[in-house]
Amino acid sequence: MSSMPKSPPESVKRHLRQRLNDHARSRWQVSGIDVRFRGEFAYVEARLQGGAYARLCRLRFEGLPHTWAFALYLPSDDIYQNSPLPSGHLSGSPEEALDCACAFHFADPEVHIPSTAPTS
Question: Which helix (DSSP H) or strand (DSSP E) does residue 62 occupy?
Fold first, then answer.
Protein backbone atom coordinates (compact mmCIF):
# COMPACT_ATOMS: atom_id res chain seq x y z
CA MET A 1 0.00 0.00 0.00
CA SER A 2 1.55 3.31 -1.06
CA SER A 3 1.46 6.29 1.25
CA MET A 4 -0.18 9.36 -0.25
CA PRO A 5 0.29 12.78 1.33
CA LYS A 6 -2.76 13.64 3.42
CA SER A 7 -2.37 17.36 2.85
CA PRO A 8 -0.42 19.30 0.25
CA PRO A 9 2.62 21.20 1.51
CA GLU A 10 2.34 25.00 1.84
CA SER A 11 4.37 25.53 -1.35
CA VAL A 12 1.85 23.46 -3.33
CA LYS A 13 -1.05 25.36 -1.78
CA ARG A 14 0.47 28.71 -2.79
CA HIS A 15 1.22 27.40 -6.28
CA LEU A 16 -2.35 26.11 -6.74
CA ARG A 17 -3.86 29.44 -5.68
CA GLN A 18 -1.58 31.32 -8.06
CA ARG A 19 -2.26 28.98 -11.01
CA LEU A 20 -6.03 29.14 -10.57
CA ASN A 21 -6.07 32.93 -10.22
CA ASP A 22 -3.79 33.43 -13.23
CA HIS A 23 -5.97 31.14 -15.34
CA ALA A 24 -9.23 32.70 -14.14
CA ARG A 25 -8.00 36.20 -15.04
CA SER A 26 -7.13 35.06 -18.56
CA ARG A 27 -10.31 33.04 -19.21
CA TRP A 28 -13.19 33.90 -16.86
CA GLN A 29 -14.91 37.12 -15.84
CA VAL A 30 -14.57 36.73 -12.10
CA SER A 31 -12.97 39.02 -9.53
CA GLY A 32 -10.75 36.19 -8.33
CA ILE A 33 -10.53 32.62 -7.13
CA ASP A 34 -10.42 31.67 -3.46
CA VAL A 35 -9.07 28.30 -2.39
CA ARG A 36 -9.40 26.93 1.12
CA PHE A 37 -7.80 23.70 2.22
CA ARG A 38 -9.00 20.97 4.51
CA GLY A 39 -6.73 17.94 4.65
CA GLU A 40 -6.16 16.62 1.14
CA PHE A 41 -8.98 18.73 -0.32
CA ALA A 42 -8.91 22.18 -1.92
CA TYR A 43 -12.30 23.91 -2.11
CA VAL A 44 -12.46 26.36 -5.01
CA GLU A 45 -14.79 29.38 -5.09
CA ALA A 46 -15.13 32.25 -7.53
CA ARG A 47 -15.35 35.81 -6.26
CA LEU A 48 -17.98 37.49 -8.40
CA GLN A 49 -18.64 41.13 -9.19
CA GLY A 50 -20.45 42.80 -6.30
CA GLY A 51 -18.83 40.64 -3.62
CA ALA A 52 -20.82 37.44 -4.07
CA TYR A 53 -19.16 34.02 -4.08
CA ALA A 54 -19.91 30.88 -6.10
CA ARG A 55 -18.69 27.44 -5.03
CA LEU A 56 -17.19 25.73 -8.06
CA CYS A 57 -15.44 22.49 -7.24
CA ARG A 58 -13.31 20.46 -4.91
CA LEU A 59 -9.86 19.23 -5.86
CA ARG A 60 -8.12 16.34 -4.09
CA PHE A 61 -4.36 16.32 -3.76
CA GLU A 62 -2.89 13.12 -5.17
CA GLY A 63 0.74 13.76 -4.37
CA LEU A 64 1.65 15.74 -7.52
CA PRO A 65 1.22 19.52 -7.77
CA HIS A 66 0.03 19.38 -11.39
CA THR A 67 -2.60 16.62 -11.12
CA TRP A 68 -5.65 16.83 -8.87
CA ALA A 69 -8.80 14.70 -8.61
CA PHE A 70 -11.95 16.65 -9.51
CA ALA A 71 -15.39 16.90 -7.90
CA LEU A 72 -17.96 19.34 -9.26
CA TYR A 73 -20.08 21.32 -6.81
CA LEU A 74 -23.80 20.67 -7.39
CA PRO A 75 -25.75 23.56 -5.82
CA SER A 76 -29.12 21.81 -6.20
CA ASP A 77 -27.96 19.06 -3.82
CA ASP A 78 -25.29 21.09 -1.95
CA ILE A 79 -22.71 18.33 -2.55
CA TYR A 80 -19.45 17.76 -4.36
CA GLN A 81 -19.77 14.97 -6.95
CA ASN A 82 -16.69 13.17 -8.28
CA SER A 83 -16.86 13.94 -11.99
CA PRO A 84 -14.86 13.29 -15.14
CA LEU A 85 -13.05 16.20 -16.71
CA PRO A 86 -13.56 17.00 -20.41
CA SER A 87 -10.57 14.73 -21.10
CA GLY A 88 -12.60 11.83 -19.63
CA HIS A 89 -10.19 11.41 -16.72
CA LEU A 90 -11.15 11.84 -13.07
CA SER A 91 -7.90 13.74 -12.42
CA GLY A 92 -6.16 16.48 -14.36
CA SER A 93 -4.67 19.93 -14.22
CA PRO A 94 -6.14 22.57 -11.94
CA GLU A 95 -6.83 24.72 -15.01
CA GLU A 96 -8.83 21.96 -16.70
CA ALA A 97 -10.84 21.50 -13.50
CA LEU A 98 -11.47 25.25 -13.21
CA ASP A 99 -12.62 25.47 -16.83
CA CYS A 100 -14.97 22.52 -16.39
CA ALA A 101 -16.47 23.91 -13.17
CA CYS A 102 -16.84 27.45 -14.53
CA ALA A 103 -18.40 26.17 -17.75
CA PHE A 104 -20.95 24.22 -15.71
CA HIS A 105 -21.76 27.05 -13.31
CA PHE A 106 -21.58 29.91 -15.80
CA ALA A 107 -23.01 28.01 -18.83
CA ASP A 108 -20.10 28.41 -21.25
CA PRO A 109 -20.89 26.41 -24.40
CA GLU A 110 -17.24 26.55 -25.51
CA VAL A 111 -16.12 24.01 -22.89
CA HIS A 112 -17.27 20.40 -23.23
CA ILE A 113 -18.67 18.90 -20.05
CA PRO A 114 -19.31 15.16 -19.89
CA SER A 115 -23.03 14.45 -19.69
CA THR A 116 -22.74 11.75 -17.04
CA ALA A 117 -20.65 11.36 -13.93
CA PRO A 118 -19.45 7.99 -12.65
CA THR A 119 -21.60 6.49 -9.92
CA SER A 120 -18.74 5.48 -7.67
Answer: strand 53-64
